[in-house]
Amino acid sequence: MCLTPDGRGDGLPLLQRRPLVCALPDRQRAVIVLRHYEDLSEAQIADVLGCAPGTVKSQASAGMAALRRALAATGVGEVVDGS
Predict the structure, then answer these.
(1) Which of 6, 18, 19, 59 could serve as a FRET partner for 12 with CA atoms 20 to 30 Å apart?
(2) Which GO terms describe its biological process (predicted)?
């Protein structure tokens, strides 16, 4: 799983990432897992979760932002201000 939009690895071993992913709200966690662990498309995720593709995009964005903040707090990544 890459936690950066440009495809670079985050340098954090999978076992250390798991608690960060598990700490996400249910919908965000589902979207992140389906996208990055199961390699489903946004349309496929929307179908699985019974929501609109736009919801998948917003939940993925929020989840990735939360993961970036969590990684920055561990000293592994840096916070990227999305504004």
Answers:
(1) 59
(2) DNA-templated transcription initiation
Is 80 within a domain? no
Residue 1 CB neighbours (<10 A): 15
Report phi then psi at 12, rounded to 5: -100, 125
User: For the domain that residue 46 is a member of, what is the CATH number?
Assistant: 1.10.10.10
CA 5 to chain CA centroid, nearest Å? 10
What is the tally of structural domains in the chain? Answer: 1
Query: Which secondary structure element, helix H or strand E, spans residue 21, and what is its range?
Result: helix 14-22
Domain extent, residue 63, equals: 14-74
Residue 3, sorted as left (phi over 0), alpha (psi -120 to 50) or beta, turns out to be alpha
d(CA 31, CA 38): 10
Classify residue 5: in a domain, yes or no: no
